[in-house]
Amino acid sequence: LGTAVGGVLLDKITKKGAKPELEDKKEDLGGGGGGIVTMSLMLCSALTAVAMPFLFLAFSNAPLSVFYFGMVLGEFFLFSTTAPLNGVFLWCVSAEQRSMSL
Q1: How far is CA 89 from CA 1, 27, 61, 95, in A?
Q2: Burial class of 35 by CB neighbour count within 10 A (0 to 12, 13 to 18, 19+)
Q3: Which of 48, 70, 82, 97 could connect to 93 by a Cys-Cys bridge, CB 3.0–4.6 Å?
Q4: Each residue's pLDDT expressed in tens, for the chain with a length of 102 residues
Q5: Spatial distance between the Cα atoms of 93 and 35, rounded to a whole number of angstroms
Q6: CA distance 9 to 82
Q7: 44/40 Cα distance (integer angstroms)
């Protein structure tokens, strides 16, 4: 579920502000702060930052119900980074090497 949500968030973010992607031109994907790779990595950073308080709450000296609550939400946000990271791995290599990049 988290991976699917991360993919949907990535699609929404890249449709709003990313430069149009060209097939084999890496400079259009990353550099300049508005590329798809840059936006994907910023999304991963934001999702990880959102997950950390929940995981800290889970591992603090709290009741078992708080542990479960923190772990479920923390893991959800951490798994949400999977789709954007896989996209970065695929966008950072040439088209011929994409099948081997994951």
Answers
A1: 21, 15, 37, 12
A2: buried
A3: 97
A4: 888 999 898 888 887 665 545 444 444 454 545 588 888 999 999 999 999 999 999 999 889 999 999 999 999 999 999 999 988 888 888 888 888 877
A5: 15
A6: 12
A7: 6
Q: Using the structure block, give the residue that is written with the tokens 């929940």.
A: 54
Cα separation, 25 vs 83, whole angstroms: 21
SS3 90: helix
Q: Residue 85 has which token pair?
A: 């990271």
b/e code 51-85 from CB counts within 10 Å (16+ = b): beebbebbeeeeeeeeeeebeebbebbbbbbbbbb
